[in-house]
Each structure stands twice: as C-alpha cells, then as structure tokens.
Records
---
Amino acid sequence: MNFKSDNEAPAHPAVMDALMAANEGYATAYSQDHWSLALNERLSEWFGTECQVLPVSTGTAANCMALAEISPPWGGIVCHQVAHIQNDEGGAPEFYTHGAKLMPLAGDNGKLAPDVVAQAIDRAGVHGVHNVKPSLVSITQATECGTVYRPDEVKALAEVAHQRGLPLHMDGARFANALAWLDCTPGEITWQAGVDVLSLGLTKNGALNAEALVVFGHPEWLEGLERRRKRGGHLLSKMRYVSAQILAMLDDELALSLAAQANARAAELAAGIEASERASLHWPTEANEVFMRADPAVLAALKSAGFAFHIWPGYDDVARLVCSWATREEDVAAFVDALRGV
Amino acid sequence: MNFKSDNEAPAHPAVMDALMAANEGYATAYSQDHWSLALNERLSEWFGTECQVLPVSTGTAANCMALAEISPPWGGIVCHQVAHIQNDEGGAPEFYTHGAKLMPLAGDNGKLAPDVVAQAIDRAGVHGVHNVKPSLVSITQATECGTVYRPDEVKALAEVAHQRGLPLHMDGARFANALAWLDCTPGEITWQAGVDVLSLGLTKNGALNAEALVVFGHPEWLEGLERRRKRGGHLLSKMRYVSAQILAMLDDELALSLAAQANARAAELAAGIEASERASLHWPTEANEVFMRADPAVLAALKSAGFAFHIWPGYDDVARLVCSWATREEDVAAFVDALRGV
Amino acid sequence: MNFKSDNEAPAHPAVMDALMAANEGYATAYSQDHWSLALNERLSEWFGTECQVLPVSTGTAANCMALAEISPPWGGIVCHQVAHIQNDEGGAPEFYTHGAKLMPLAGDNGKLAPDVVAQAIDRAGVHGVHNVKPSLVSITQATECGTVYRPDEVKALAEVAHQRGLPLHMDGARFANALAWLDCTPGEITWQAGVDVLSLGLTKNGALNAEALVVFGHPEWLEGLERRRKRGGHLLSKMRYVSAQILAMLDDELALSLAAQANARAAELAAGIEASERASLHWPTEANEVFMRADPAVLAALKSAGFAFHIWPGYDDVARLVCSWATREEDVAAFVDALRGV
Amino acid sequence: MNFKSDNEAPAHPAVMDALMAANEGYATAYSQDHWSLALNERLSEWFGTECQVLPVSTGTAANCMALAEISPPWGGIVCHQVAHIQNDEGGAPEFYTHGAKLMPLAGDNGKLAPDVVAQAIDRAGVHGVHNVKPSLVSITQATECGTVYRPDEVKALAEVAHQRGLPLHMDGARFANALAWLDCTPGEITWQAGVDVLSLGLTKNGALNAEALVVFGHPEWLEGLERRRKRGGHLLSKMRYVSAQILAMLDDELALSLAAQANARAAELAAGIEASERASLHWPTEANEVFMRADPAVLAALKSAGFAFHIWPGYDDVARLVCSWATREEDVAAFVDALRGV
C-alpha cells in the first residue's frame, strides 16, 4: 500500500476524459489553443480577480520561472529551510535564476514566522554589492511539514515582504489540500492575503502533469515569464493536453473535492496513529500528509509488512505518510491495524 | 484545412489508449515506473544496440540537455543556419549550456556539407581561449527544409566531427519521417552512421508530448544528463504518462507507419504542386514538409480560401506545408484543386 | 620590432608616476577612494555632460557588464561580424549575459550599415518567444578593421536602434585613436551621436590595466552594473590604482596625445606601404592599425626579418600592423625599408 | 588611524619598484610575457612541488574560477557559514559556477570541524538528482575570524573530503599571515596537507592587485581554469604588471616578512586589549585580525576618537581591527591608549 507520495497516484478518470475530449482535430500550437486561451478567464473566476496563467508540466518549472522573473541573479530568495525549492529541486532555482541564493530560515511546523523573515531581510544586504540582495519571499502551501498557513499568517508575511519591496511567492504544490482544510475561498488565501504569484499544483492533486503559474496583478512579469518558459523548454507545442487537465480540475471544483478526499484519509490516519499508542504525530496533520514519529523498529516492521513510505530526511524515527485522492479508507484502516499489531 | 504544423495535429488513438492503460494504480515517481524503466531495453532493440534513454516532454528539452552535456559553456555548437536550435528555441540552447555559442553554417537544402563543417571547425579556435571552442556538431533529421540526410551523408559529417574530437548530435524532431523515407533501419541512420546522441521526437509524429533523448555509447554523459533534466524541471513526477506514449509509438512500428502516412500525403501534395503550373517546389520534398514557391498573391488567395500554412521566414513567396498522420488524402486534393483554381 | 598589438606596449611614464603618487597612505576600499570618486566629475567634464563611470581592469569586463545590463538573457546583440565581442572574448558576452545571442552582421570596412542593422532587427523576433529578441546594438570605435565611425554614421545607427527601443553600446578599446583622427569632441562622437554607454579603453592607449565604463543618461542601469561588476570579480579592493591611471590619462589630454602619436606612426606606415609597390592597404588606415595586403611570401620574409605582427584570421595575405604610443618613427622606417627590400 | 582592512593599505615600495622595472619595452600579451611565464617555476620552488599558477587581479576571481572548475552547476560547496565566498562576494560563486549551492556550516572560531563536514556531505545528496551534490570543500586560511588552521586540521578536513571524492580549496586571502603564524613551510599547510587548489592572496599582503590561483596536481583543471579566466574578463592583456607583483612578493620572502610584521602589530594590539580591562578578545588573535569585544559605547567612543574599524556583522559589541604591513607600532599604541582612556 502506497503512502510514499501523491505523485505516485494515478490521474483521476475525469481528467483522463478531458484529455480524450481534447484530442480532437487540429489546435493551434504553443499555448494558443482554445483550452489554453480559456485559462485566464477560468482561473480569474476561481480566484475572484483578474489573473494571468501560464500552464506548464511541472511544479519545478512553475516555481523556477516565478523565482527567476522576480529575483535578479544577485538576489536572495527567503524561504523555509525545509522548502522544496531549497532541498528537492536539484538546484533548479539556481539554474533558472542564474545563480540567486536561497536564504533558508528556521520556523515551527514548516512555517516562516514574520519576525524571523523581517530580521533576515533587514540584516542581509547591509554591505551593498558585497551581499546578495533579498528579492522575494517564498512559502509553501500546504507546507512541506503537512501544515497549512492561515490567511492571517500569509497576510503577516506578505506585509513584512511588501514593506521591504519584496513580492511573495506561494509554492502551491498541494494548494487544493490547503484550501480544502482552510475552508476559505481561493482568493482569501492568495491575492487577498498578499500573494503575488502562485504555483498552482494539480499533478499531485489528480492530474497527469499539469501545473498553472498564476500571476496576480503584475503584468510587467508576463513577457519575462513567457520567455523563461520557452527557454526552459516548457512551452509545449501541444499545450492543449496540459490546459485541458487544468480545466477539468476546475470543473465542479474537482481539485477541491479530490483534495478534501485525500485530507479526510490523512485525518483518519492521524487519528488512528494517535489512538494506537505505538506512535505519535511529529507535526500536526492539516492537509494530506501525516508525519508519524515511531521507533525505527516499528517503521521497519511496517515497511516489511508492505507499506511504502519515506523516512523523513534528517530523522530515523519519522515517517511521512501521504494520502492521495486514490487512497481508500481500507488502505488507512489496514495501516492503522498493522501499526497496532506491530 | 491545417498545413501549419504537425504539432497542431491531435495524438493518435493508439497513444491515447496507451495513456489510459497506464493510468492504473500507483507507480513509482520520477521516471522509476515500469514504463520508463522499459525504455532502455525497448529502444535498444529498436536501434539494434544498447542505448540509454531519457524521456522528456519537449524537443527543446531533449536537444538542450544534450547540447549542454556535450558542450562546455565556452563551446561552439556547429549547426546549419536554419537549424531549429539556432532560430526557433528562443535561446534555450544558450540557457542550458550556460552560454555556448551557436556556429551557424550555410548549406544546400538545409544540410551541412562535410567540407564546410571541417573548415569551420579548423578555422575556429585558433586563438585559444580568445575564441569559443567548437564542441559538437548538430544536424536535424529530417532537416528544417524537409530534406533527409542519407546514411552516407551522416557518416561523412560524423567522420569530420569525430576526427576533431567532436560528438555528433541529431535533432530528430521528425526522425520517423526521415526514417520512413530512407527505408533503412533506425540503427543505420544513427549510431552506425556515427550519431552519438539523438533527440527522438514523437510529438509531431503522433504523440501528445513525448520525446526521448537517446544516447549511444556514452555512459559518461548519463549523470550530467539526468542532473540537467532535473534542473530544467523536466523530470516529471508522473513520467509514466510520457514513457507510455513512447512505448506505444514503438509498438508495431506505429511511429514509422504514421510517418509513412504523413510522408505519402506530402508526396501527393508535392506532385500536385508541380503539376499545377501555378507553383513549384523550393526544396525537394523528402519527408512530410513541402516548401512551395508561388506568387505572393497566390499564397494570399490560398490563405483566404481557408488553407492554413506558414510563409517561410525570409521569403514572401515560399509557403511551408506540413502533413501529419492526420492529414487526409482529401485535404491534399482540396489544396491542389484550390491551387489550380487560383 | 613589435607591430603585434598596442597591448604589448609598456605603460606611459606619466601613468606610472600617477600610480606612484596614488600609493600613499590608506584609502577606502572597493572604489570608494578619492581617485575613484573623482571619476564621475572628471569624465563628465571631458564628455561635456553628466555621466557615470565604473572603473575596471579589462575591456572585456567593461563590454560585458554593459551588454549584460542592457540585454536580457533572451536578447540579441547586434554587432559586426568582426566585432571583438563576437570573436575575441572567448564567450565572455554569453557568460555575463547568461546566454544572450550575438547577431553578427556584414558591413564594409568593419562598420555596420544602418539599413542592414534595421533589417536585421526588423526580421528577427517575428516569432515572439521562439526567437531571441534584439536588445541592443554594439559598435567598435575605432573598428576592428582600423577604420573610424564619423559622428553622422554613429547618429544614423543610433537612430535605427533607438527607434526600435534598443540602446547603442560603443566598444571604445581604441576610442582615443578614433577621437584623435576625427578631430571632434568626445561628446560629439558619443552621447551627442546617440551612444548610451561606452567602454572607454585606456590600456592599449598607454595605461597598465585601466578601462572606464561610461554611462550616459541611464541611471536605471547603475545598480545592475555595480552588482555585475562585483559578481564578475571586477570590483578591485584597491581600485585607486585603476582610477589613478584613468585620471592620469585625462590630465593634459594625455590619452589623446598618445593616440595621436600612434596614429601618426600608422599613417607613416600606411604611406610607406602604399609607396612600396610591394604591398597595398586592405582597409583604409584611419586610426593606429594598418592592414597590409601582400604576398604570403613577403609576409613570411618580414617575419623572418624580425618584424612581429599578426596574419589576420581568415586571410593568408593580410597582415595587421599596430602602432602604439611607444612605436618610434625609426621602427616604421625600418619596416618600410624592409618591405621595399624584400 | 585605519584598522578597517588591510586592503585599504598602500602597496609596499618593493612592489612598486617591481612594477616600474616591468614597464620596459614590449611584452607578449595575455599572460605570455616572461614575468607570467616565470610564475609556475617560482611558485613551484616556493611550495616545494610542481604547481601551476594563474595570475589574476582579485581574490574573488581566483576563488570563483576554482569553485567553478571543480563544482558542476548542480554541485554543493561546503564552507563555513562565515566564509567570504558565502557572505561577501555578492553571489560571484553562484555566477561563476552557473548556480552551484553554497552549503554553509557552523564551527568554532571560523573553522570547519571534520565530523561536521563529514556529516553534511553524507546527509546531502541522498535523494540523487533531487538534491545538489556536494562537490568540494572550501576553507579560508587565515579564517574570517582571524584564526589559523594548523596542518593537522587541514589534513583532517582533506581526508574527509578526499575520502568522499571531493577536492579541497583554500581561500588564502591572508595566506601569508597564516603561514607566518604557523612557522611551517608553504607546502606543509597546502599540498602536503591535502589542499588541491589555493587562492593565494597578495593584495591585502602588500601588493596592488595581484592574486595567484595555485593548482597542485590537477592538470585536468587547467584548460577550464584558463577558459573561465578569459570568460570572466580576468585575462589581462598586460598581465606582466600583475605577475611582476607576485614575483616581487616572493623575492626574499617579502610576502612572509610583511605578514609577520602585520601579525606582530595584531599581537601587540591583542595584548593591549586584554590588558586594558575595557575589552576582551572575541576570537583568538592568530594572524593580523583582532576581534575585540567591548561595550558598544566604548566602540562608539573609539570611532569618535578617529579610529576606523568595522563592527562585525551580527554583533553590536564586536569590532574587527585589522593590521597591515603599513600599521605602525605607534598606531597600535595610540589605539590601546585610547581604549584605556575611554
């Protein structure tokens, strides 16, 4: 049973249907097809404000195009020390930005704290050209620790950033999971809270390979973003197949309902773990990821029993268990049973 | 009727079926799924030699990963002056290579001539570090002019390159079209002719977004290629959907039969144009692209009549007409009729 | 006798004296010393307009900082096909610009022609993100062919560039030689003719290692230029020793008088060659470089006789003969005698 | 009185004399003059082993050429968190390496500890292409805290690095100061202790702008280093003036004696501070930098009294006081008197 990652799950049938439907006749290449051209309007509706959307195939591409557009090569990118852009993209941010420097900060539960961010920005760059220049703040929603920023928390970070002239980027690889947990509108947790640009991840959420870079109110970034997408090799000729996925995920709030489903499984899993007395939660479970602390021997036993999951880097007693839209109640129950039985 | 590009055509139903079939259950992420893991063996069979394969979503990604792995940042990339990497990738080669220099050369029918290449390499770099250092030769098969390199022609270029220590890259955006026209084996026109690395394009050929970078006999390039793929944001988490397309295109030689079909339409179109007395062929038609020279008024009339095609950059009297697997005999007939009737 | 290059000549004694004078006591580091701080005012006086100056040690650094500040990574840099930035800087422009593309053009006597530039810009970039985007025009003064742009010629190029939104860069590696020949003011051949930024070369002119990047009216470039200078490792801690050289070259118009002296020698050399009936001038001699066309056997004989010079790349019968401030009349006479006697 | 930095000090008269002596006649450009060509032999003698030397004008250039040659763009550069390359080069390492990632580590007195380095390397890169790959270890000698690595300490770090396939780089901006304090041979603290490449700084030591990149036993790095120097704009045409400085600093062990002199002043200063009962030493004084901890009011009073120094970043009660070859005994005495009198 797979709790390794939501990116190992299949795509949702409705997305496959949309792909099939999009496979009809000729369509203008390079994101000029009517699916791609519909994205701005559809996502503007969803977010409740006019936004501009660039579809791409990976979250790394979406993140890095945004970072590179905002940060000059001598810029500093303020982020959490567990951020995906810092640890898990193989240096892609440095590649796309032509050498900007990640400025990783500590913070509870995978979240940046406004005062820590403020201090980091204010202390950096005091020696002018001898230092890198903080150029943006990037947060992950839901965080890499499975927690979720509240609108007020995002607002406070945006305020710190904006007061210092820095935009705020949100890596929303699991955005819908956060949204489902928050029970707020997409707008409330993004542009209304000060987010300038969002990497809206849909692949983990139930698509095949579809992410949308969503820009709120910065038309001056568009040309650079489009140039960077092309230069990165991310302007697919047959973009319709990416855009059709995105549209399908918006229809009837599919993204949100799949995320809610995954979150529900994670909540059950978390409850089962806590009740088991064999293990505990390392970080609060808020979205679709559960971080379980248990004796390494227990973790090994569960692995032997056929449960697949990652041991969290830097720990030997913390397992990350990810639920997806495809995780079934019985999968969770089986895991909890096995845990009890160890 | 669309003769603009084969990348505006839909995907072939068999590819869609393969995509559906791949959408079952969990699969290991990041190209460790069993579809992706099967690629080396399947393509090794196809080429008749052991090769190593990296699936990606775009031809630009495939080309640029290869160029960057072979050429140091101070390298020179010898190519034809109409090469896609020189003109149509928005500077992606320069981005991925960290600033290598394209060395564009003239040559009839979109092909590089061995003596021209030899001279360009031998004359470059004579001032050591003051000059860029020629580092590889890149050819396009079929060429941007719709012509096809014969095995002997590739061999002659490979010899020139190899004698000078330079590998040979083949941009095979329309490789299957070339292969179908040549009636030789995949091996004969690649590694047996001295090709070191091939960007095997399948998207224009009938897939959605699937290209395979195929390396012949250079295991020392693998780590760098994989790193560059990740840093470029091209290591899809759900790679199975790309790899399944590639496998489908290999089944029953689908790639080849779709290419043959497109080539047949192009041949009919070329014959019709020549017989029309209204227009002529600007370059020989060998694959699935027809370059028709006609009075600009004729071209305008055809556009008004609903035929979509590109006027070739740098000309006002040359139209590029591309046939795909989805081009029908009646589409070609309609075009030829319209041309006669102008 | 050395006619290889003016950069093989020693520094002028007055520059050495200035260096000695600058070597007294402590001075603030990183270009905050009073020599460096005086540059803006002194060069503003010289040029007759307010300009901003960044001292550096090499012409490549000056050129590349300017190119990188003006051109985005996806930009195209329009230049002559014999331009130093295209052929002789080992790819430094591509390095500093993060992969911009040089767009080399043909033109008589090493000069760009306005209509050729206009056409190149207008034809490029028609396919949007698929093409690189022309971003600036760069000319060399005096040119690599030893000729000199007149103010009207620069104006015409600036007009073509500015009408299309592109700034004009002047690589003035031999600026003083051009100026001495033109007999106009420094302002007339730069900002008054539309030059936006000048690499003012003083090393070949008689300094040790001093170049000034001079910006006319673009305060928005300053931060980026300073960042790029630091990141390139060109912000010398003891910058006073560079700036003192620049100031010394301005005192009593030393730069100009040394250039005039070198030009005079070149003119004598050119006259001697023409009178010799053994050789001819390949390009007109206007500054301090003479391009002599002669039978390869004649060139070989002169080399054997101890005269050092370069055979021009791409030719076997053209020698470049460079005069410097240190070239003596008797050196020229000896060469001409030898030529006659071959 | 200036205790701000040794790079604000003038050059030593013997270096100026050497510069004058080098200013005679023509000399081959681009590091092919006889001063530059003598460097390999002279520094090989000094180090007691064959080494290869590239002269440059700044320490940043020397460091970054080395880092870029050793680390691929996806590499990780292990260094101390106070390292100059991490904090004070404005992102130059990221620029030259095309985006490698600095991996800053904590450690007492500015020194890396072998077990900390080992752990950092071993824990990084476990997720393959998703992580950056540790590619070299860089240490500073003397450290940014004014302390000095002993040969055994360097050996232990080299062993940790080499066992893992990583070379060891030494940033020797104040190498001679370290050497003078250690009283060992140049070889014992470099190649004999496992250093693969050294940035030998001479500017702070008493030159104008001269640094030597010294490579021990890696001929395979030479081409790349030379290419990177050119592309960085650091291949001075009149390199003789840099190389002559380096040679002058080696004559009669001038570098060493100037360093010993600066160290002696620093030792006197440290002793005076400790005896003053007004302040204490924050880090041990081993080379020519003294880190004095004192009440901020005391520091302010000293500044008002005309003593120039830097407050150390991140502190308000630590002053860095740097002695140079030009610091006089009476300068130190004046400072100590003033401190006592506050």
Note: Residues 255-341 of chain A form a domain with the Aspartate Aminotransferase, domain 1 fold (CATH 3.90.1150.10).
---
Amino acid sequence: MTPVNSPAAMPRGGSRLDPWVDSYAARSAGLTASEIRALFAVASRPEVVSLAGGMPFVSALPLDILADTVAAMIRDRGAVALQYGSGQGDEHLREQICEVMQLSGINGHPDDVVVTTGSQMALDLVVRIFCDPGDVVLVESPSYVGALGVFRSYQCRIVHVQMDDDGLSPAALTETIDRLTEQGARIKLLYTVPTYQNPSGITASPDRRAEMLQIAARHNILVLEDDPYCLLGFDGHVPQAIRALDDQAVVYLGSFSKTIAAGLRVGWALAPHGVREKLVLAAEAAVLCPANYAQLTVAEYLDTQPWLDQVKVFRELYRERRDALLGAMAAQFPAGTTWTVPEGGFYSWVTLPEGLDATAMLPRAVSSLVAYVPGTGFYSDGQGRESLRLSYCYPEPERIVEGVRRLAGVIESELDVAHTFGTDHVQPPPGPAFPDPGMS
Amino acid sequence: MTPVNSPAAMPRGGSRLDPWVDSYAARSAGLTASEIRALFAVASRPEVVSLAGGMPFVSALPLDILADTVAAMIRDRGAVALQYGSGQGDEHLREQICEVMQLSGINGHPDDVVVTTGSQMALDLVVRIFCDPGDVVLVESPSYVGALGVFRSYQCRIVHVQMDDDGLSPAALTETIDRLTEQGARIKLLYTVPTYQNPSGITASPDRRAEMLQIAARHNILVLEDDPYCLLGFDGHVPQAIRALDDQAVVYLGSFSKTIAAGLRVGWALAPHGVREKLVLAAEAAVLCPANYAQLTVAEYLDTQPWLDQVKVFRELYRERRDALLGAMAAQFPAGTTWTVPEGGFYSWVTLPEGLDATAMLPRAVSSLVAYVPGTGFYSDGQGRESLRLSYCYPEPERIVEGVRRLAGVIESELDVAHTFGTDHVQPPPGPAFPDPGMS
C-alpha cells in the first residue's frame, strides 16, 4: 500500500489552514465561531462568578436514587434500553410526555409526539422541514441564542418583533408581517418562548398568547412555541401553553433538561399530524432514532419517582437565587441600570445606563472575575449592545451576590470612563423595568 | 382567553390532511415514507423470522455488570453526567476514541474528534456543511440506506459507482468522475463503507483503499469513510482504515453501536482540523451538545471493563450466525441464487435467479413468515430489484436456518410462477459469488 500523504492528496484551491475551504456548502457561511467563545473559556475558571451559562443545578438531584433507578432499569429492560428504537421515540415515554403537557393545558396524542436529542434537535428539525434559504422567521426582541443559530444555519432571514413586559407586541407583529408581505417575503415561522423567556425572563400574558396565535394563523405562519421552563414558575402556577389554544397552528417544543437533567438530552416536539410525519422522517435521517438508553431512564424515573416534588425543589432553589440576584442588583447597581423581574425560569435581562456597551464591557467584567452574556448574542441584527443576560440558575446565592457586587463595580468604572469622555447622561434611579429602550 | 380552534387558525392553501402542505421547504420533498414501512410493522411480529434488521445482539452484553458500572458512574460523576457538556464531546472520551481508532491504524488527535448522537448524526453534519442542493455524492453499488436518506434530505444528486468483490472499482470511479466533471457537476463527497459493507458484506482490499483515496484526492473529492463494523472481523483482523493513509483527505466516522450498544447513540467523526471546526458549530446548532450521560457511560465502560473481550464475544457470536446463514443458503436456495461471503459484520447480499424481483416478492415472503430488505432500498436509482440483503446479526442460528428454509420456499414458488409464465431461464448452480450482474 502506498501512503498518500502527499501533495496529490491536497485539494486544489484549499489552504494549509483548511484544504477544504472552497468545498463547503453555502449554508456553512453562517457557521462562524462566536467572538466571545474564547472569553468564555476563561470565564469557566472557578474564581470567576459566572452569571453567563444557563446550566440547571443538577446537583440538587438525588444521585443515589437515580443510580439505583437506572441500574434497575438496565437489569430489567437492558435489551431494549441498549438497542436501536423507534425513530419517533419510545411509545410509553410519548404517553408520559402527554401527561406532562397536560400540566400546561395541552391535550396531545402520543402519536403526534416526536422524541428528540434535546428540544434543540426538535427546533432544528422543524426549521429543516419548513425553511428554504431566505424564508423569514419572526422572533422576539431579544430571542434565544440557540434558536438564532439554527435559523442562521438554514439561511433563514431572521426578523425581530418588539416586545414589552407582557410579551410580543401584537401591533408590532401585525406591522412587521404587513411590511414583510409587501416586500414579497415568505414568512414561515413565528418562534416564541412565551414563558419565563430566555433571555428576557418575560412571560407573555394569556391575552397576548391568543392574539399572537390569531395573527400568525391569519397569515399562514406556523407558531413554534418553545417551552422548556413552564414548570419552573416561582408561585407554582403553570401558564397555559399557546398550543393549548390550537392543535393545528402550533408546533410545541418541550424538554426534560430543566425538570430532570440536561445531560440526558431528551426533548420533544408535539406537532400537527402531517408535520409530525415529516418530523419523524427528518429525525430518522438525522440520527436514526433517539437514544433508548436516555428515554427509558426518563420513563423509569417518571414512573417510579416523585418527579414533581423534585421539580418543586428546583423551583424553590431557583426562586431563592432569583431573589438573591434581584436584591443584590437593587442594592448595588448604579443609577440608570434597569432589569426584568422573572416569575420563573433562569434569567433576568439587564439594561445598562445610557451610553454603556455590554459587549465592550465584557472583557473588563471577566478581568473582574464575573461573566455574563452580552445582549448582542440574542439579536441577529446588531441590537442589544446596551443589554446583558444574567443567569441565576447555577451559582449559590452568596456567589450571585458577590458576582453582582463585582459587576456593579465594573459598571461604575465604565460610567467613570464615560463621564471623563463626556458621554454620560443624567441617569434615572436603578430598578426593575422593561429593559430595552430601543424596543418599545 | 378565546380558544381559536376555528377556521381562522387554518392556514390558507392547506388541506384537512395537512394544513401546512404548502409551507414546507423544498428539501422536504425528499422526505417520504418508504413503501415497505407498513410491511415491516407486520414483519416485527414474533412469528416472523426477520433477516431484515441490522440490530446488534445486545442481549450478549453483561447487563448486571453494566448496571453496576452505570450506577457507580452516576454516584461518582452524576453532576457532570446529567449536565450540559461540550458541543464537541467529552474530552476524556475523545482520547479513548483515539485509542479505539488506533486498532484500525489511525493516528488521530482528540482535538479533531467530534462526538455525535450515533455516527448517523456525524454523517448528517458532514453533508450539511458540504453539500448544496444538486451537489454530487458518489456512493457504492449498493450503498447504506441510512446514508442515502441523508444525501436525499439535503437534495444531493446521488451517483452509484460499480463495485466488485474487492470493493469500489477504480476504473468505474475514474470514468464516473470524468463523465460528471464533463457535465459540470460539483462532486463533493465519495461515501464508502470499506469494511464488511452494509449491505453487501464486501470488504475493500488494501490496494483498492489506496486507489480510491488517490483518485478522490486528485479530483478534490472528500472521502467520507463510514466504519462501524471494523472490529467485527471473524478472524480478529482489523483492516487498516482509509483514514490511516491520509489525515487531510478523509472524514472518518466511527460508532460504539456495534461494539458496545446501539441504544446509547454514541458515534463520532474524525475530521481534518478546519472541517472539525465547522462540524462542531453545526453540531451545536443541531443538538447543543451530545448527551454527557451516554458519553460518560461509554467512558466508564471502556475504562473499567474488558471491552475488547466483549467485542470478541460479539464477533464469535456473529461468525456462528454467518456460518448458519451460509450453510443454510447453500443447502436450501435454488439454482441461480448467489450471495456474498462476508468476513465480518452483519450482512450478506443475495441475488435471485434471473427474472425474479425481490421487491415484488417481499409481501409473499412476509406471508411465509420471513423478512428481508429488498435491494432497491440500497440504490437511489431503481437498481437492485434482483437482490436483497440478509442480516444474520440478531436471530439465533436455528432461527436463521428456519428463515432461509422459508425464503427458499418462497423463491421456489416464484420460480414456478416465472416458469409458468415463461420468463425463466437456465439457472447456474446456487453459490457464493459477487451478486449483481448489472454491476460488473
């Protein structure tokens, strides 16, 4: 055999950095590493208080009980758990998922559920089957960074629609649709996280949900409802899902990442029947089938453990952390800083005093051993420089307080710099408010 | 709140069957359910001997030991196993994967490995980053049905290249490339399963591997080497991978589905560095990260269990079943039937006596309580009607013998019918041979 590590094996037109640089698909142009990636590698050092990541606090899970549950499952059903399974997902788990969704007022049939490798994969599959390059996806302002990545990867045109503290603005939605329709755009999806939104922490009111749905349906736009946080409301209330209002106009995405464990990667889509058929075929092309191992772990846990009690443990733990964050921000942040008050979930959205730039400030924050995600990550169009997302889900409350103290110091120094260079303004007192001045 | 289950919520242009029928992306046109799907639901009944599925015999795994291994892993590392992880995959597992690949002569770096939800997802990601609609993918004749599904789902043009019993024909490959290049086609990938191929059972010779690589590299065509069966050679020999010959011209796909367990869904890609970067970004858009839970299970199993001894158990078990299949075919199949003799893996490729049609015959086979996959499934262009794939991996040897007995009866009846209607020919004696008369 002749080894062929030779110039003959190097594609023409390539570079030493990447010999395949001329061979990629057009859609790969949207795949570029985020500028803040390197910074986050630094931010993961233990001395940094990270208010950046959205990691659930899985250490609150009863690991001994889980270990026993999984061991029993492998002994009893190992031949199934370790085997290929259905492309649509385990039937018993799909029944259990329908019971979980009933908590959000959803009447779904197991036949219309597709189990996926986290709900991220469900999101990917929906976009894959619906969106041609150039098709418009409407999203909130701001919107979930992981969803924006999917839309970009399928070369969608992302258009942000204004929000206020009751959720997406119906007037702005109608205006945006009319404007785009006039331009001849094909609007395929309205992507929304209506409950304890990532990143804003905002929850859409019941009226807004109904209005959003009616406007979308009137214009043949499928509502893509992403609902991973619904059971994490601090008062125990579960908002009624948009999908509860209509079974044909909505694809609903759910996840066990925040109620059981993110590392299992078990999520799902509930879709109108015809859409579900296409989703299953797309899922089979993408991964053949979701992991029986993780699915049967979830099914066994739901069947044998008091899982809603554990969700309550998570909820109370996150409430305590949210309170720590809100208290510290009110006590420490300088005048002109505003933030949202989430009623559940993981996030608060902070808007800096006028003239400050959260993206430019991030390296200085990391030097001061605190990290956040700049607001620009949640927009596809450069908006969000004045804002940032703070996550309170993972660090202990005292660490959150310390992180806010550090961040307040960074904001103060930025204000000093701005003052020195004359770009400051008279700032209103700090406090909770809907954040983005550019949005209302 | 107003329920909106009303005509207003029904998109215009939709049908009662699927209101969204006019909204799908162009790529969804390739997503159609296989005609034989319903038949396979019947074929999964216990009274049917299924020689159709490619399910590994996971019952041979030591379930008690696995249960203890996983329980210990959750107790010790649950906070990691149940958490989100790196989009590229767990670092320790990537190191272990490099050790596994050394068995195939591959010198890879953990930095260039991406862990995926089964190697199917790696395949999907490679096509996603490389192939625009209309781009050509070269594949073997026949080729793996799951890969054809991926290529179709990205609207690739699939072109089959002839094989013989030493693998892909270099002359045919060159001729095909020249012809397509003359037409102005953009050929992106050469997809090959060089070892114990699914579905043909054929293994490419060392010389053929080197020739295939040189021809592809000369034409800027990336070789996509899919190698899930490499450790399942019946004589214990592991063929040297094509990737062992060149680290820039090949993306190598590997899997634990056949060496540990398919239900874990842990596979990987080893790619040139620039390609790997894009693969990780695409993976993050697709699923955020592979499941730490499954990855740490595999890592713990590799670290603490004699996993290569277990592979040997699988190998001997599959050899016994291959022998049962070959013996039964030689004893039972009528004159004119030929088949391949696999030296490893799961499959033999059978060609029926002239004039018979494996696709048309399938319903009658299922009525006679035996199932197989018709050859047409492994072609994108309607070829393969005279052939079928038999899998010997899952049924016990005596069931395989019974299945072949039933199938032989079905072939005999088909020959009787053909004889009655005058379409039969003088048939050569039955026996092992390279199968497809249309291919050489």
Note: Chain A touches chain B through 110 residues (CB under 8 Å).
